[in-house]
Amino acid sequence: QVIDKVMSHLNTKFPGKYQRDHCSSLRYRTVPTVGLELDVICRTPDGETERVTLVKEFSVPRLAFHHDRPNTSITLIVPLQGRLHTLKVFLANLRVVLGQGLLQVGLTVVYFNDLDSQKVQQLLKATEDQTHNLKTEFIPLKEKFSRGLGLQEGVRKTRLEGQVMFFCDVDVLFSREFLTRCLNTPVRGYQ
């Protein structure tokens, strides 16, 4: 569209002098008070150059989609074995993120049995007690560690009722904005 507009202008001013393939340089920038400014430079094989600037003004915003009722809670499913220190870092980050707003989060840890099982349960309970908008759940498994199995069992056995489930690894750190996007992006039956 930009090249068509430039060609229309140039052919009115210089009939037959410029062809579409002469206009290969296009730059653009956003001018906050105006819109999108587009610079097009056209060069003939003889070296003659014309520079044309177009402005695509900002238009009035239009409604694309209205989410009737935003999701209000998210359940994180985390398969885990060992990695107690990494879990402590994960939970510390989660406490900070949840302290910044009214997000309701459930954390289901599917734990593949080892010597730290009791410590993990205590850590989850302590974190839940310190964080008013966090519910935790510990699901023990006796099988050999498998991330896929852990996620599947987490979905199947969780009693936490988040409207959105998010599969997560224990070494992932995220922000409140990320969790908000996770909650607001899914639309049941749509996306």
From TrEMBL:
The keyword Membrane is assigned to this record: yes
SUPFAM superfamilies in alphabetical order: Nucleotide-diphospho-sugar transferases
Gene3D superfamilies in the record: Spore Coat Polysaccharide Biosynthesis Protein SpsA, Chain A
Enzyme class: transferase
Keywords associated with the record: Golgi apparatus, Membrane, Signal-anchor, Transferase, Transmembrane, Transmembrane helix
Keyword presence, Transmembrane: yes
Protein name as annotated: Hexosyltransferase
